[in-house]
Amino acid sequence: MELVIDTTCPTQWNFAYKSDDPRLDELYELAKRDQWNVTEDINWDQQVRDDSEILDRSEDMFAQTKFFRSLSADTQAQISANQTAFMISQFMHGEQGALLCCGQLVDTVPDIEGKLYAATQVMDEARHVEVFYKYLGLLDREYPMDPALKAVLDVILAAESWQAKCVGMQVLVESLAMGTFRMMMRASADQLLRDIVTLTARDEARHVSFGIISMSHEIPKLSQDEREQLEDLAFQAISILFGENGVGMGGESLADAGIDPAEAMQAVAAEIIESGDMSMADRRLEIVREYMVPNVEKVGLMSERMRPKYQAAGYLA
Predict the structure, then answer these.
(1) What is the pLDDT of residues 105-153, one digit of tens each?
(2) pLDDT single digits (tens) 212-231
(3) Could you tell me the CATH number of the domain that includes residue 167?
(4) Residue 120's domain spans which residues?
(5) Distance between CA atoms of 291 and 282, rounded to whole angstroms?
(6) Would 287 be classed as within a structural domain?
(7) Which residues, other chains included, contact 149 with Cβ-Cβ below 8 Å and sequence gap of 6+?
(8) Of 50, 155, 189, 210, most Cβ neighbours within 10 A?
(9) How many domains does the chain have?
């Protein structure tokens, strides 16, 4: 897995220290006010549920399949525990990607209010890496970064313009985080994890707002070619994450429970075809349709050129 990402995005000074955007000023004030300490502001003494019971299986699409229900109780419990560890691992890795990207944004965002706000987000992302690493230490195992998640973050980190980094991270990846955390709150039966996600999601909401405010100003100023490059980037990022080879449940989480991932996926696919029930596929795209695509539209990147592509991919509600 590549650890060094080359980028040619320039660092920019700005000696005009007076802010021109009251909305970003307000966001900066909220970011300063709402800082929290992983060590002091979370009760780490509370009892953590058994790994296999942290996430409610009624909210797990895979756990609703005939294939899953045909497995022994012990195997079901092991898969549930592994999938929880896989998901928390992806949160941790993804937050490091956000940390790296926001460090770049401090350098490359041209206006002073954007630099100041991005600096607060660097601290937010550092805290998120810390908190998910600490929670993961309470579980049985840790998983490597999902290749699709790594691929999309590498595209953003290597982007040559600050606008591309902002669209990729603030508009798309942070929207993905918001949607995932909302689903996690719905599914989590563990109070400690709920406390962590509540505080983290509050930060993520600010991050999305930064992207929408910044890009709503910036995108109308771009040339048609520049705008189309951002449109393509947005669609590419969503397709990497949710396309055929996108982020899944983690084959390792099945393999570690003694289940062949390919066999499991074939069985589930056959079950979907046989029943004609597409709710599993629709549920997987819920985050795209409810969080990511609406924010793509808000910043002006859903052109008539792009809409048919989103429609064909099933990304529109």
Answers:
(1) 999 999 999 999 999 999 999 999 999 999 999 998 999 999 999 999 9
(2) 999 999 999 999 999 999 99
(3) 1.20.1260.10
(4) 51-245+274-313
(5) 14
(6) yes
(7) 90, 93, 94, 97, 241, 247
(8) 210
(9) 1
Q: Which two tokens stand for residue 106?
A: 């401090």
pTM, entire model: 0.94
Query: Is 41 within the bounds of a domain?
Result: no
| Joined tokens for residue 286 | 């819920």
The dihedrals phi and psi of 246, each to the nearest 5 degrees, come to -75, -175
**1 within domain boundaries:** no
Which has the closest alpha carbon to 246: 229, 227, 265?
A: 265
Residue 188: strand, helix, or coil: strand
Which of 194, 212, 191, 1 has the alpha carbon at shortest distance from 93?
A: 1
- Rounded to an integer, what distance in angstroms lies between the CA atom of residue 294 and that of residue 289? 7
Instruction: Please report whether residue 14 resides in a domain.
Output: no
CB 234 within 8 A of CB 167: yes
